[in-house]
């Protein structure tokens, strides 16, 4: 049995549910939260990606998640940080303190689009920060970084329902560790910026958290917890999240780049992060306080 979840917070109507059933060739509509999200209960689906694409095309402004019913609520949540759980790319904002935001942001965009190697791009961008005072890290974090809407509600709700949580990023511990504490993530994987005498050296230390390392972190924790692939939810926005997304039962592109959208099981384009709670069938009355 499959479920197609339709999500359009404050904008979903009975006519949308009827249209979805028409596109799917049947199904039983059922509200999760009236006006916000609903399920279309289906039988076996031969090509769920094709159905998802047709529903997205036929319901503009509605996010659609098509998945098997039996593994709907997840036991492990793995998330990217920059432009996913937060609204910024931390290295771009940090580069602004060095007067180099425009040039660094251009490299970041190319890396996220998958046009250049992530590790190469990381080293080039970090090198541009050589000599920047470490005090700028905290200033950048407190002055520039903001949670994406629904971030804390999503993490806290999944934690309260027994799911394990992992924040994994090609960014830096200086940003990821405080963010994890604020949102409620239990574990963090990130890169380390090297500093000496109160200034950044323009280098990273230790193993690089790149696309392969992100996927490996998910698989290692999934195996450690004894979970099946179908019990895992992963979310990201860039091409470097693709291997991680493919290791999850529900891999989600959140306002993502084309290369990630092409392989993701679900694409959140119109709603905030709480869409992932509706995707799991969790009504608003059961959400943790954000």
Automatic annotation (TrEMBL):
<feature type="active site" description="Nucleophile">
    <location>
        <position position="80"/>
    </location>
</feature>
<dbReference type="Pfam" id="PF12710">
    <property type="entry name" value="HAD"/>
</dbReference>
<keyword id="KW-0378">Hydrolase</keyword>
<dbReference type="InterPro" id="IPR036412">
    <property type="entry name" value="HAD-like_sf"/>
</dbReference>
<dbReference type="InterPro" id="IPR004469">
    <property type="entry name" value="PSP"/>
</dbReference>
<dbReference type="GO" id="GO:0000287">
    <property type="term" value="F:magnesium ion binding"/>
</dbReference>
<keyword id="KW-0028">Amino-acid biosynthesis</keyword>
<feature type="active site" description="Proton donor">
    <location>
        <position position="82"/>
    </location>
</feature>
<keyword id="KW-0460">Magnesium</keyword>
<keyword id="KW-0718">Serine biosynthesis</keyword>
<dbReference type="GO" id="GO:0006564">
    <property type="term" value="P:L-serine biosynthetic process"/>
</dbReference>
<dbReference type="InterPro" id="IPR023214">
    <property type="entry name" value="HAD_sf"/>
</dbReference>
<dbReference type="GO" id="GO:0036424">
    <property type="term" value="F:L-phosphoserine phosphatase activity"/>
</dbReference>
<comment type="pathway">
    <text>Amino-acid biosynthesis; L-serine biosynthesis; L-serine from 3-phospho-D-glycerate: step 3/3.</text>
</comment>
<comment type="similarity">
    <text>Belongs to the HAD-like hydrolase superfamily. SerB family.</text>
</comment>
<dbReference type="InterPro" id="IPR050582">
    <property type="entry name" value="HAD-like_SerB"/>
</dbReference>
<keyword id="KW-0479">Metal-binding</keyword>
<dbReference type="GO" id="GO:0005737">
    <property type="term" value="C:cytoplasm"/>
</dbReference>
<protein>
    <recommendedName>
        <fullName>Phosphoserine phosphatase</fullName>
        <ecNumber>3.1.3.3</ecNumber>
    </recommendedName>
</protein>
């Amino acid at each position: 049995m499959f479920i197609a979840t339709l999500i359009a917070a404050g904008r979903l109507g009975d006519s949308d549910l009827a249209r979805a059933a028409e596109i799917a060739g049947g199904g039983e509509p059922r509200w999760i939260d009236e006006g916000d999200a609903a399920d279309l209960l289906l039988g076996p689906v031969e090509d769920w990606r094709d159905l998802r694409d047709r529903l997205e095309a036929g319901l503009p402004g509605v996010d659609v998640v098509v998945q098997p019913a039996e593994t709907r609520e997840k036991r492990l949540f793995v998330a990217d940080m920059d432009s996913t759980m937060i609204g910024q790319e931390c290295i771009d904002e940090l580069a602004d303190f060095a007067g180099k935001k425009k040039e660094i942001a251009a490299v970041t965009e190319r890396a996220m689009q998958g046009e250049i190697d992530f590790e190469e791009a990381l080293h080039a961008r970090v090198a541009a920060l050589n000599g920047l005072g470490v005090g700028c890290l905290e200033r950048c974090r407190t002055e520039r970084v903001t949670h994406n809407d629904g971030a804390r509600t999503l993490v806290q709700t999944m934690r309260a329902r027994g799911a394990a949580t992992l924040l994994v990023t090609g960014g830096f511990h200086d940003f990821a560790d405080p963010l994890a504490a604020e949102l409620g993530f239990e574990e963090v994987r990130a890169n380390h910026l090297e500093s000496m005498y109160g200034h950044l050296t323009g280098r990273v230390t230790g193993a690089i958290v790149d696309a392969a390392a992100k996927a490996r972190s998910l698989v290692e924790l999934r195996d450690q917890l004894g979970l099946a692939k179908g019990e895992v939810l992963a979310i990201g926005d860039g091409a470097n999240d693709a291997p991680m997304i493919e290791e999850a039962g529900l891999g989600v592109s959140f306002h993502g780049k084309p290369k990630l959208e092409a392989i993701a099981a679900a694409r959140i384009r119109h709603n905030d992060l709480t869409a992932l709670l509706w995707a799991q069938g969790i009504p608003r009355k059961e959400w943790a306080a954000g």
